[in-house]
Write a structure and sequence with these properties.
6-stranded antiparallel sheet; 28 helices; 17 strands
Amino acid sequence: MSGICGIVEAGAQLRPSELEPMLCASGLADDHRPHALADRGALFGVSPRWKFQSIASRNGVLVATSADLCNLNNLVADVRARCNWSGDSVAELIVELYGLYGLSFVEKLEGSFSVALWDAGQQQLALAIDRLGLETLFWTRDRGRLLFGSRLSAVVAGKAQVDINPAALVQFLLHAVVPAPLTIYNDVDRLEPGTMLLFTRGEIVKRKYWDLNYQESADESTAYWAEQLRAKMREAVHSHWNDCEPERTGAYLSGGTDSTSILAFSSELQSPVNTFSIYFENPRYDEIGFARTAAEGFHANHHEKCLQAGDAAEAIPKIVDYFDEPFANSSAIGAYYCARMARENGVETLLAGDGGDELFAGNERYASDKRFALYHSLPGFLRNRLLKPLAHLLPSEGFLSLPARYIRRAELPNPQRMFSYSFFLSQVAEQVFDRDLLKQVPAASWLNIPDSHFHAAPQASSELNRLLYLDVKMTLADNDVRKVRGTAEMAGVKVRFPFMDRNLAEFSGRIPSRLKLKGFEKRFIFKEAMKGILPSSILHKKKHGFGVPVGYWALSDPEMRSIAAVLDEPQTRQRGYFQPDFLAHIKHMNASYPAYYGEVMWVLIMLELWHRRHFDGAAAGARELGAAHAF
């Protein structure tokens, strides 16, 4: 994405030319002209695409920021009342907020933001991103200095050497993304949501300034929580329309409860609302009927596109080019065309429905996990002396094997149980991975990151809330948000996420978990809140998801077959990650089970395409840069 970058080296006289490679790597083709500022040991730059991306310097304080703030008008009024400020950029505003509140200025910001602030008098750098990880900041220490950037490629452009982090590589294969704080490169980190990093005279300290708390209320009144939730959602959606021109603003519309709720509350402010949907001819992946029902019910100015294999083949090189570390969420293809369709129709801002599932228990896996948890409600003697011995007597395959498989999965602790469906976690590691890779990244370490999230959920007393917290950190911040924001920026559109509003998220943590998942009914309290507002057919539809039929297209379309053929090439097989026959095995299995193996194959394809576009050349360039620095 476009955004900010910089170099900090206390006491050094930094030359503007040192930042040029990072600025070039930060920008996209149609960004505004980049510019830079320096102040006694710091050199900051911005490659702006939006007006909220800016840079400023005053009284020894240097700020670079990308901050789309929902409370911007309130902050401006506050600062002007206190210090007669007359600036016009967000960076200038943050300089003033820092003067008023010190480092706690970050707690005043509402919305999506990344901020770099250099206090020359204190010789201190502060880096921070928003509470839920809507923005990104990457950073590294290199030759005595600290480099940072909104884009990973900006940081890599300033480094003397880059090497793939094998632990991050395995995480990508498990999750289709590289989760924070890792990046695909050794010694380069991504800042976690709600975190501030301080770099002071060579010392680094990270502190969490916010986290999602799960202090559940003892009040389990359905009527009370439904009414309060409805009001909070309405407030969140309305606040995200601030500063938006109605005719240049729209919403993604999948036909699910989240996107339809965004449309419903938006329609209270603006009618008609511009809406955008994509769909597929393959009925397994298509729910355009629900999107049309929502659009008709709320009188939206609706647009839709049927996505074909050729569209995917056209988009893949663009997606690989934009995402500068491996990223294999296949629904990025659909998200890109949705945003592009919006831009072609004059829309500059889209509202996205991401967040509802992870705050209010809307994913099927939460209900499935609860079914496994029932096993532990049985007396121990019954489980150990009767059920398990009987299950061992049943066949190991076919329908009669289900009891034994249920018991095996039920006895796994979470989050291991939640991730046990993952393809790579369900295989014998030695049959998939090269042995040298397994020595560097033993299987026992593979779930360290999700495990740390699961056990860190503040004040969570239920298994469900710990799983929700894990998904807020990984499914949202690491994956879905980056997909939606990235593909929108590719199309020239900015995105806002009303259901990831800080106040709504904090409110969700207080709702009793039994009202989020009541019995096995997903997002129960959300549905109660939206009764009478959403069409019943949408409110009670089976969750569909937003998958893309990449496995089927790789079998039927010549262009997609050509892209998939990258797995057959010697260059791919010689990366040294997998057993010799593994890639061929996956392609063979996709021929019979494209709905499942297509996604596995997609992860492998995107990994190889990333290598060829981003790593092979970057590694060679870094080696040349390192050699130049040696003389």
